[in-house]
Amino acid sequence: MQNSDAMALSVALLAVAGELTQRINDGVVARGFEGMRPAHGFAFVRLAPDGATVTDLAAHLGVTKQAASQLVDEIVRKGYAERRPHPGDARARLIVLTERGWACTRAAEESAAEVVRAWAGVLGEEELRGLYGRLARIAPQGPIRPVW
């Protein structure tokens, strides 16, 4: 593959990822979860299903502990998460989703399903399944991060 082809493919994948992220976020907000940003969703991915410490969240997001702590303060203040004693470390606090946080996560899943259904309308079910299979083979298996 030529450099220009590789760059065109990179741009196309980034454009699809950016649009997907924005459309999921727009769907979450449209379902009544005001003030949500994509960064919140990336954090929720790590907090579900068993919670995480601020240190865990910082590593997942690729940010400093201070930045992760600010994000946690925000989602706790908005009622999406709560701090609990960590069952294995008396010095740490476990950040877990509240029922409102889980409801927001379900709204994100519904929004993602809407986007994928639209893709199926463009590509067809079989081609969409093939795309998923190919992307799954090359996608990194690590956490979903909002950074490059």
Defining traits:
6 helices, single chain, mainly alpha, about 150 residues
Q: What does it look like?
A:
This protein has 148 residues and is mostly helical. Helix content is 66%, strand content 7%. It has six helices and two strands. The protein has helices at residues 3-30, 38-47, 54-61, 65-77, 99-123, 125-138; strands at residues 81-85, 93-97. The protein has a two-stranded antiparallel ribbon. Helix 2 (38-47) packs across helix 3 and helix 3 (54-61) crosses helix 4. The longest helix is centred in the first third of the chain and has 28 residues, at 3-30. It is globular, with a radius of gyration of 17 Å. The two termini are 22 Å apart.
- The helix/strand order is HHHHEEHH
Using only CA atoms, what is the Rg?
17 Å
- The best one-word shape is globular
Low-confidence stretches: none
Strand order of the largest sheet: 1-2
- Amount of beta strand: 5-15%
What is the residue-averaged pLDDT? Answer: 90
How many DSSP-defined strands? 2
What's a concise summary of this model?
Helix content is 66%, strand content 7%. With 148 residues, it is mostly helical.
